[in-house]
Write a structure and sequence with these properties.
It contains 9 helices and 9 strands. The protein is an alpha/beta fold. α1 (18-36) crosses α2 (44-51) and α1 crosses α4. The strands form 2 sheets. Strands 5-6-4-3-7-8-9 form a 7-stranded mixed beta sheet, sandwiched between helices. It has a two-stranded antiparallel sheet with strand order 1-2.
């Protein structure tokens, strides 16, 4: 079986922009849902709506893959699933190690979506001796002393870090030295890596803070809309025009 150490996707060599690469998983998720419902074809407008992008951007992205669809018919769902999966390197086996088997690490280990998307959790690693040998998601946890050998034995090129922030950089350095070239970092810290190593950061607290910003903005907009909807109190304008003795004509008339 092919492993991530010997086969890497050709995305960069084909000059596909990073922004397009970032959207390919969105298209694949939408297409997988259509495939599961046995939908044979999909228009660019329908697929763009399902992926949350505009159709012009989708068509541009697919042009990098050499896929242009058929006028009046749309895109073949199964073929697009294959195309995108191949471009992302998901038609082969990618062994992954997870380092740091706390609550988050254990939750990731139990996530069933890895296998169906081309990833195999090859090893779970933790620095706590008490964790060694424990079964998580049917996989025995191994001590971090053997990290380098585990990486080598399993041909791992992708590592997931779910450790406390204080040790994340040290773990990262060991992974890179052992041959890992792609890292998914869940630790709330910025990692420094050499050229040739890709890092994707997932910071849940930052995502929540961004959502909090939007909630605060929406609350402010709602408050402003409410204030604008309240009718203004009537203003009393005192008539300062002098009245005549009968009270209906000015006492002084213009010449």
């Amino acid at each position: 079986m092919a492993t991530g150490r010997t086969h890497r996707p050709a995305t960069r060599s084909r000059g596909i922009p990073e922004a397009t690469v970032a959207r390919l998983p969105l298209y694949l998720r939408a297409l997988t849902g259509l495939s599961e419902r046995s939908v044979p074809t999909v228009s660019s407008e329908e697929l763009a709506a399902a992926a949350g992008v505009n159709s012009a951007k989708l068509r541009k992205d697919f042009s990098y893959l050499g896929s242009y669809g058929t006028r009046g018919v749309g895109y073949d769902v199964e073929y697009l699933v294959y195309q995108i999966s191949r471009e992302l390197g998901l038609t082969q086996d990618w062994p992954v190690v997870i380092v740091g088997i706390g609550n988050l690490g254990a939750a990731l280990a139990n996530y069933g979506g890895f296998a169906s998307r081309g990833f195999r959790v090859a090893a779970l690693i933790d620095a706590d001796l008490a964790m060694a040998g424990k079964q998580v998601a049917g996989i025995g946890v191994q001590h971090s002393d053997g990290l380098e050998k585990i990486i080598s034995d399993n041909g791992v090129s992708i590592g997931v870090i779910t450790t406390p922030p204080g040790v994340a950089q040290q773990v990262c350095d060991r992974l890179v030295a052992a041959g890992v070239t792609s890292i998914l970092n869940f630790a709330p810290t910025v990692l420094t890596v050499p050229d040739g190593v890709d890092v994707r950061k997932v910071d849940l607290s930052i995502e929540l803070q961004i959502l909090a910003f939007h909630e605060q903005r929406k609350a402010g907009e709602e408050a402003a809309a409410h204030d604008n909807a309240v009718p203004a109190a009537p203003v009393s304008h005192k008539d300062t025009t002098e009245q005549g003795p009968d009270g209906d004509v000015p006492a002084v008339m213009p010449a």
